[in-house]
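Design job #97: recover the sequence.
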């Protein structure tokens, strides 16, 4: 199984077979040049002939050939490759889901499917796809990132209706991670505005995940009877308590855990559940007023048409909604969207009294314009704090 390195340029995999042939050719040229310098032209010519034959055989072997009896008589279809691009914390689930899908497809269609996988920050992954990483399926942290790929012309409008549940694949909620024993007695969003509290979160201008955090703070006021003026006042107080704004959620976690800054870290429920499964139990609170962190999935139309693998890519997306796949997401802390699996794992999740969504705040296009565009509310908060 090949895994992407985020430093790979242009979204293209290295062709290992061609690389091997190139190395052989390079060695041959060095040898031939040396022989020419010694005046032994006959040996040089003979080397050219022999290596040419060897390379022809090697390339024929690498190509696989359509004359192989297995290809012509077994009924096995040509192999298909799918490139999945997702955000970092989903890796554990997909490592379980992908083998289940490939085995099912092989059994039903007698066709091998292999996956190229790329994991990283959702914003970084979005930029990589737009810049040329040829993803067939994208499963990102927020709809806004998928919309950016749509705006780049790679995904056709209406993708939300092409998968179940309006293309929302998994869910989570915001969590407040505290120090051991919760010495500051943090219980609610309101506590984050107290004068003696230091809060750690990433920068909403650079982190998609941090936008969820910001919206959770804002909605904790507007969805409990407050208006925008009160929400602005409250959010402003919280951001005055933030000593540093790391670039992304991973850096924010490092600031809190490794550097020891802050009394509370705004994180995700799925991350703290996964940490507990890995033996690291973190003290945390799930506020009973919370935002539904909805994670979408989409087929990248331009790329699947180019790769001629749309049928398999769409089947994989559909498989992600089956109970088998949804269980794997639940096992690593995500809230599943399948009602049967939700019931099975109900003891894992703390009930939320008031749960709102990005749509309740106007949808991502309106959210971006109101809060995160240059000169919007977040920039105004930062400008006021810096005075």
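Job complete. Output follows.
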């Amino acid at each position: 199984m090949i895994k992407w390195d985020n430093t790979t340029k242009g979204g293209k995999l290295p062709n290992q077979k061609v690389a091997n042939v190139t190395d052989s050719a390079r060695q041959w040229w060095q040898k031939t040049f040396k022989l020419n310098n010694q005046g032994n032209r006959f040996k040089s010519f003979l080397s050219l002939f022999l290596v040419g034959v060897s390379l022809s055989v090697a390339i024929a072997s690498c190509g696989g050939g359509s004359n192989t009896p297995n290809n012509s008589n077994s009924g096995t279809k040509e192999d298909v490759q799918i490139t999945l691009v997702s955000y970092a914390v989903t890796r554990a689930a997909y490592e379980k889901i992908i083998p289940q899908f490939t085995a099912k497809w092989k059994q039903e269609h007698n066709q091998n499917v292999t996956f190229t996988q790329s994991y990283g920050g959702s914003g970084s992954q979005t930029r990589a796809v737009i810049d040329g990483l040829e993803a067939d399926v994208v499963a990102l942290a927020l709809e806004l990132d998928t919309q950016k790929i749509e705006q780049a012309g790679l995904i056709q409008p209406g993708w939300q209706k092409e998968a179940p549940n309006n293309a929302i694949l998994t869910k989570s909620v915001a969590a407040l991670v505290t120090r051991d024993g919760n010495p500051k007695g943090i219980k609610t969003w309101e506590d984050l505005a107290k004068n003696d509290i230091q809060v750690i979160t990433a920068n909403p201008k650079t982190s998609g995940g941090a936008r969820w955090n910001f919206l959770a703070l804002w909605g904790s006021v507007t969805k409990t009877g407050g208006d925008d003026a009160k929400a602005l006042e409250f959010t402003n107080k919280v951001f005055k308590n933030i000593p540093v704004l790391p670039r992304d959620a991973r850096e924010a976690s490092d600031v809190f855990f490794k550097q020891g800054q802050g009394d509370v870290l705004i994180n995700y429920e799925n991350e703290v559940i996964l940490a507990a499964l890995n033996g690291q139990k973190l003290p945390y609170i799930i506020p009973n007023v919370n935002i539904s962190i909805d994670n979408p999935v989409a087929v990248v139309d331009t790329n699947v048409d180019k790769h001629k693998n749309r049928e398999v890519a769409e089947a994989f997306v559909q498989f992600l909604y089956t109970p088998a796949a949804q269980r794997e997401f639940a096992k690593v802390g995500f809230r599943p969207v399948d009602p049967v699996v939700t019931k099975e794992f109900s003891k894992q999740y703390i009930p939320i009294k008031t749960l709102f969504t990005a749509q309740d705040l106007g949808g991502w296009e309106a959210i971006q314009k109101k809060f995160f565009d240059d000169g919007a509310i977040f920039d105004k908060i930062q400008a006021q704090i810096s005075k």
